[in-house]
């Protein structure tokens, strides 16, 4: 649970200025190259370890965009609508938001094409990485919600 309203989390996902504040695990920093939160819209980010030299991070498209409820994207199709073979693995990520007490039930489900990709993603630190950025997202929106 994140102690902030769904609207704040949604804004953190769909506003480039907010997204870059939490999208990659610290101390790396993110740059949002394209963010078009609509079905078929581009979701392209880069990351940097030193804040100056950026490398590609995410090149994907949004599949489903239901404001303040659900966001689904995949990197199996890149932002130019070409089939992709992304590193480290192709995936579909689904983020759902629902009211929960004085906050938001925030869930992320990541699906892979086969067990080998799932296992590879886990070996590369999937849970730690997504957990880290979820923590950064929570800190950002909870601080904003507290005023």
What are the defining features of this structure?
147 residues; alpha+beta; six-stranded antiparallel β-sheet; 4 helices
Write the layout of secondary structure elements.
Elements: H1 6-14, H2 16-19, E1 29-35, E2 42-48, E3 55-66, E4 70-74, E5 92-100, E6 103-111, H3 115-123, H4 126-146
Antiparallel strand pairs: 1-2, 2-3, 3-4, 4-5, 5-6
Parts with pLDDT < 50 across at least 5 consecutive residues: none
Structure classification: alpha+beta
**Head-to-tail CA distance between termini:** 19 Å
Question: What gyration radius follows from the Cα positions, in whole Å?
Answer: 15 Å
Overall number of strands: 6
Count of individual helical segments: 4
* Strand order within the widest beta sheet: 1-2-3-4-5-6
Query: How many strands, which pairing sense, and closed or not: the largest β-sheet?
Result: 6 strands, antiparallel
The percentage of residues in β strands lies in: 25-35%
Secondary-structure element series: HHEEEEEEHH
Global geometry: globular
What is the oligomer described by this structure? single chain
Helix content: 25-40%
Structure write-up:
The protein has 147 residues and is α+β, with helices and mostly antiparallel strands. It is built from four helices and six strands. A six-stranded antiparallel β-sheet has the order 1-2-3-4-5-6. The chain is globular and about 40 Å long. The two termini are 19 Å apart. The mean pLDDT is 95.
Please provide a brief summary of the model:
Helices cover 29% and strands 33% of the residues.
């Amino acid at each position: 649970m994140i102690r902030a309203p769904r609207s704040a989390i949604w804004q953190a996902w769909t506003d480039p200025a907010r997204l870059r504040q939490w999208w990659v695990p610290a101390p790396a920093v993110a740059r949002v190259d394209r963010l078009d939160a609509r079905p078929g819209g581009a979701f392209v980010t880069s990351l940097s370890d030193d804040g100056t030299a950026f490398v590609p991070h995410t090149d994907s498209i949004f599949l489903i965009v239901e404001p303040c409820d659900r966001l689904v994207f995949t990197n199996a199709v890149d932002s130019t609508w070409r089939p992709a073979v992304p590193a480290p693995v192709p995936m579909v990520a689904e983020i759902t938001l629902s009211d929960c007490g004085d906050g938001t039930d925030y869930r992320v489900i990541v699906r892979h094409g086969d067990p080998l990709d799932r296992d590879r993603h886990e070996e590369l630190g999937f849970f730690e990485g997504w957990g880290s950025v979820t923590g950064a997202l929570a800190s950002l929106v909870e601080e904003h919600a507290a005023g």
